[in-house]
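Fold this sequence, please.
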Amino acid sequence: MSPRISRPTSSGKVLFYVQHLLGIGHLARASRIARALMEDGFDVTLVTGGAPVEGFPGKGVTHIQLPAVVASNSGFSALADLDGHPVDAAFEEARTRQLLEAFHSARPDAVILEAFPFGRRQVRFELLPLIEAIRSATPKPLLFSSIRDILQENRKPGRDRETVDLIKAHFDGVLVHGAPEFVRLEDTFALTQEIADRLHYTGLVAPQKPEPATDEYDTVISAGGGAVGAALIGAAFDARRLLRDQSRWCVIAGPNLPASDYAQFETRADAGVSLFRFRRDFPRLLGSATLSISQAGYNTVCDLLAARCRSLLVPFAAGGETEQTVRAARLEALGLAQVVREEGLNGPAMADAIVAARTLTFPEHLPVSLDGAAETARFIRRQLDKAQALN
């Protein structure tokens, strides 16, 4: 099976690898960074290994789609193809060959690995050979890890040490897409000090402040990719009934919400509720909304901050996930969000939180930079210039 390739003409060369397993957050963030790199003059090849998502990575970016894999269990420890078949050794070998072909074809000046080695150990079968190919290449491209500001806690013993050893041995830098004023990497990664010389905080990878959408809603409810969003949307419908809310609601269920759940919500939607699977203009909808109800994923929070939209966050916490809970708590402490925990999520709790969230006010100046995509491009450009000056 050959990878699908669409190739624009540009200057500069970056190979960017991203593997999303459940939602679309990793792919969305990588796509924003790829766009900024392209606008800085780089020829960007984005290699994706998850289920294809319409609209990503966006126009003008070279895109190589590897045979897709998704998480086959709630702990993200096993992989399956899109038909649900477990990934076997032959599948892994085929993907590895295609990834290495993409690397040798692109001949990049820099390679960015999204999440690895801090995460995505499930695909180390292909990333370790890629790292070896990078090490052996002449000229040798720079190698960067691209991570969000808050990492998943409760990692298995020894994982952090393995991560640090890989960073020290092979990586030229770690791009932390956040701001130390908001949260520092050491808050969720104990061995940060050992790689402090390689860290660069870029700021949050957020969009520019959006223009209001042509169709306006008072409340925008979104469930990310939708795979785990049914409880959030159901509680919102219950709260609407309890509050006797007649305002205009936009409910974005997500492309991965099970069809049976979507059908149920269609029957519950009254005349004031518009239900969608996906809205590409989600950031623009926030620009004119008075309230957003959502999970606390990285990209969603970036959209909310860029739009300066009041938010009610329900952080995803199933399967021991901690990242969204940490992010939501930081935003709540800054007075930028109201939070409802998953374990206490029901109609009455959602209704009370909606009333409280509608009283939130934004400060004149946000305590965090939202320029992460452009700063990533600038940083890589500076590092390449330094490397070239030494040669």
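DSSP finds eleven helices and 16 strands in the chain. The chain has two domains: 4-205+371-390, 219-357.
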